[in-house]
Structures are given as structure tokens and as C-alpha cells.
Amino acid sequence: MKAEKPTSARELKNAQKTWALLLEDGRIAMTPKRVAKLFADAGLGNRFELPLNKHMHLIGPYPKLLNLHSARLPYCTYYEQNAFPEDFALLETTGETPPAELHLINDENLEELYFPANALSGPNYIALDNLPNLKKITITRNIETGDYPVRNKLLTALDDGGGIGLKWLYCKNLPNLETIEIEGGLLWLRVQNAPKLINMNLANANKLFYLHIEHAPKLNKLRVDQCIKLAKVDGLGPVQLRKLGVENAINRIQKSKSRFDGAIYKNMTISDVYFVLDIINKGWAQAAICDLLGDEYEYDTEIFKKIPGFTKWSFKILNPLCLVSTRGTGMTATFEVLERDFDNKNMFCYRSEGEVSPENCLDYILYALVNSKLAKKFNTSEKMLGKLKTLIQ
Question: Could you please report the per-residue DSSP string of 307-349?
């Protein structure tokens, strides 16, 4: 029998790029057999496949301690299911558990649960519901990466761009949960109905953008002191927020880490993200008022008078993974740039390209403006940002 030709370094490199792009969308668009071989050549083949039913529920019964560091989703499921969370705002009103790539529900055995923060082949969207004896949830970086140099390099490269690992965790009806410890690139976390929850250590989840905690009356420790993308914590009352010192911790990290110089840099604080966004929107509005946009951007001053601060074009960066109307595309992305037409108070997503970070969204907005008539005087988006800053000074 003829020996199978080994995967070349070039093929492996191309596959790595493919994983980076397609894992952002929650799917792998290669044949399961080919993906399995590429993963094996990268030292990723020694992982057990999660047994899931057609509803993406992990088949039980579960053990007392479930460690998913060596687990991966079935390739056929990744390829065919393409599961994404629904519109979070809608789900909050219905109280339903959203669809995810992996559901762990209705099991009385499970007491401790461990997730990898940066597993290449693991699920990005996980929902936990009705696990009455679960006491601890831990999300840590994959300790196995050091065993495989190729994998370690690959994971590091992808993790810098936010393209891999657990992004979204929904926890509901966990009556005995006491501790949550998270590190890595988690973007969205909701905890609901955890009456015995005492400790949440999120200090090393520095990409966390959205945090909602509801019905956790015994919570007495919440560490968010390194969460530079977190502007607030939803769900907790004012008394509990003061007791936990959450607002002070958030303000402290924003003041100490923010630059407030209008620069776009890697790992920006949320304050700097909105500072730059405000410069862009105010500068663009002033450009319209000064009639710098030309006929292409005809400006209605009456509308502007009725709606203060409302411009021909304005931009918004959505919360991570929010579903928006994209004129039929139904696209979901890690972050999304949203534009607003001056004829309508509502926001419309004219450009629905998903971005992996708010920083990329800012770059995208400036790139869009650079292609306008106003930007013909400038060669780069950096000069465009400088011009917009000048207009509002």
C-alpha cells in the first residue's frame, strides 16, 4: 500500500490561517478527514471527541469532575451545524437558554467543570443550565500547549487576534455554584440564579466586554481589576456594587491604563475605544456642518437641529456577538461596526464585516472614511483621524 504523503509545511501554514478565520465564525469549512489529518500533524490529534446529540447537548451522565482541556467538538458538527447565539436582548426577555455549540444541562453528578481558555478545536459558545450540584467553574489556558511547539506557536498567534477559544458563556440555574475563576479571551459572561455564588475571579479575563450577574445575593468577592474592556457590570443592585467595590475597580483600571490621546493601539482600554470613537463621530459631524463633505454627503441642517449630535454618518461599536440586521445576511460577529443614516434615528449595519476586536472596528471605520471625498486630501487613516481631531478642537 502506498504511504500517504505527509502534510507539507506550506499546507500546514495555510491550514492555520484557515482555522484562524473560520473558527471566528464557529465552523470549519474543510472536510472532516482533511481537518483531522492537519490537526494531527500539528500535534492536535490526541483529543477526545465530545458525544453530542442533535441539539448540541453533551450526552450524560457526567462525571463529578469534567475536564474539557482535551476535548473537541465533532468535526461534522462544526462543519454542518454552524451554531451561533441568538440576539441576546431578545433572549433576556424570553428567559430561554440560547442555542450554543455545547450545552451542559440537567445533570446531578457534575460538581467541578474545567474549560480551556484557548483550545483551538474547542467550542466558542457554551451554555450551562440546571446543574444542581455544580460548585466550581474554572477556565484556564490550555496547559498542554507546551508539549507541542507547533501548537504552542499557533495558539499564541491566534489568541493575540482573539480568533480562538471560549468567547461566550451562559450560566443559569446553578443553585450550589460557589466559585468562578476565568482567564483568557472570554468576551461575554452571564450568570443567572446562582444563590450560593461567593467568589468570582475574573482578574485575568482582560478581554471581557460584557458581564451580567443576576440573583447572586451571597457574592462577596468579584475581581475585575484587569478587565480593561469592561465598562460596567449589569444585573447587580447599587448596594451590592458598592459592597463589592466594582465601580471603583473599573474606574481605577480605566484611569491608570487609558491614554486619552486619540491613538489606536493594541489592547486599548474601553475608555480609549470610546474616546477615539467620539473623536470620529464629532469630527465627522463638524465636517458636515462645515460643508466639507460635498454633494455626496448632503447634510440636512433641520434634522440636525431637531436631533442634537445627530450626523449624516455616525458609528457605533456593538457589544460582542450581538446579532444585528444586515439587510438579509443575518451575520453575527465578535464585534461589529454600525453606521447610522441621517434619515432614520435607528442604526443600520451597512457594513456587516465582523471584527475580532474594538481596535479593528476603529481601524475599519477610518478605512471607510478614507475612501470618502473628504479623505482625498489625506493618504492614510491616521491623517484622517488627525483631521477629525482638528475639526472638533
Answer: STT--SEEEEEPPTT-B---TT---B-SB-EEEEETT-SS-B-
Among the ranges 60-74, 128-142, 306-320, 339-353, which has the highest mean pLDDT value?
128-142
Q: How far is residue 386 CA from its own chain's centroid?
A: 29
**Residue ranges of E strands in the chain:** 48-49, 65-67, 71-72, 102-105, 112-116, 125-129, 136-140, 168-172, 179-183, 188-192, 199-204, 210-214, 221-223, 313-317, 337-341
Distance of alpha carbon 240 from alpha carbon 358, whole angstroms: 29
* Share in percent of the chain as helix, strand, coil (round to 5): 35, 20, 50
- Crossing angle of helices 270-289 and 358-370, in 10° steps, is 20
Residue 310, C-alpha cell as written in the block: 445627530
* Residue 52, phi then psi, degrees to nearest 5: -120, 145
Which cell is 136 given?
Answer: 466550581
Among candidate residues 353, 348, 209, 338, the one with its CA nearest the CA of residue 277? 338
Q: Which set of grid coordinates corresponds to residue 375?
A: 479623505
Comparing CA positions, the residue from 98, 172, 122, 110 lying closest to residue 332 is 98
Handedness of CA 186, 190, 196, 197 (dihedral sign): positive
Q: What does the block give as the cell for 377?
A: 486630501
Q: Which amino acid is at 243?
A: K
Q: Rounded CA gap, 167 and 320, in Å?
A: 9
Q: Rounded CA gap, 104 and 58, in Å?
A: 6
pLDDT in tens, 25-52: 333 334 445 545 554 554 444 455 677 7
How far apart CA 348 and CA 325 sit, in angstroms, is 7
Q: What is the tens place of the pLDDT at every residue in 247-281?
A: 999 999 999 999 998 888 888 999 999 999 888 87
